[in-house]
Amino acid sequence: xxxxxxxxxxxxxxxxxxxxxxxxxxxxxxxxxxxxxxxxxxxxxxxxxxxxxxxxxxxxxxxxxxxxxxxxxxxxxxxxxxxxxxxxxxxxxxxxxxxxxxxxxxxxxxxxxxxxxxxxxxxxxxxxxxxxxxxxxxxxxxxxxxxxxxxxxxxxxxxxxxxxxxxxxxxxxxxxxxxxxxxxxxxxxxxxxxxxxxxxxxxxxxxxxxxxxxxxxxxxxxxxxxxxxxxxxxxxxxxxxxxxxxxxxxxxxxxxxxxxxxxxxxxxxxxxxxxxxxxxxxxxxxxxxxxxxxxxxxxxxxxxxxxxxxxxxxxxxxxxxxxxxxxxxxxxxxxxxxxxxxxxxxxxxxxxxxxxxxxxxxxxxxxxxxxxxxxxxxxxxxxxxxxxxxxxxxxxxxxxxxxxxxxxxxxxxxxxxxxxxxxxxxxxxxxxxxxxxxxxxxxxxxxxxxxxxxxxxxxxxxxxxxxxxxxxxxxx
Length: 476
Known about the structure:
EC 3.2.1.86; 38% helix; Aryl-phospho-beta-D-glucosidase BglH; 476 residues
């Protein structure tokens, strides 16, 4: 059996983590540009520390990133050499609408992505495009308070009209918002939300969530109207929550943690707010800014498929003495004593991917797409930039095996798999370059030094073989 014949193998990046060229060709400033590397990054991305412009005390890696803006042809040629069937990338909103609220788009930005998509098509690579991968033009943050304001729904709708029409025939796979549940965990990075003294943070986060969910439904509606071939997905930062023990309270804590994240996808995939979420908001005194017609829009324009990132599972306990934390994809979690961890403390759990796939497929019965999975590690290149990254190969092979089990044994409908950071890029969580995910090494360090030269790691040819054999040959 194995994977479907048209399985979409590939890799994934985000504009703000790889493009650079933050102020070229009319691009406006965005929230994602302003996250510095270093100890203040956490406070900035969570909306606790105000950083609405660059200062002289921090280094901002997104300004230049890996300069893919000027090197995309070289990079896409390398992806094609690996045999990519798809390349997941994102559009920088402030390239298309520098301020976000203009009536007319920036032609230079539109042309850039058109050329990039044509470059993909030249090699038979299907672009998988994230409309908003955390990007929010800073003008929208400062003037409207970002997604707390309903006006952003209209600006996003305008963006969608422009890109769906411009790229008709070039792009058919779309994601509306990257890791939409990140609003709850890193609100400034996820949705441009900064909190003033005394504000009700929970109210604002869920208010912003409603606006994004509405915008997602509108995007799905427009996409299907412009081109019936368009396939639109939602995107979740996923990872099953385990109970630390079989104590029922721990099991319930894990269930509640899962629901907090599924809530967004319940709306995007099923078309309505789940009862548990409405009750929880009622208890917290959160009032969703629902207007006439909102619920009908959500109901009538659900997504075609469910995509997600998976790096690790998480653990929940109600015992305060069990408090050893480990890192994760922005989310912290209790340490799982049965798992090993990466150099950044992310727990490695391939079976957790199979569990997550089954949980999502059971819940939504829609095709799934793994659009991020990978191992962030310190790579040591030789003088030619070659890295023997057996640890990465092992991590990916084990996760692909688990994914295969979900498809072959459990019957999960899986569209494709794009590894995160197929070329080394700036880490979203830490802003570091030394936390590398790619099959392609980029000569650049945390301080922005280096030649930006690209070179293939050992995993490059390994992944090429995986794609050639449709996931049958995972040997190192």
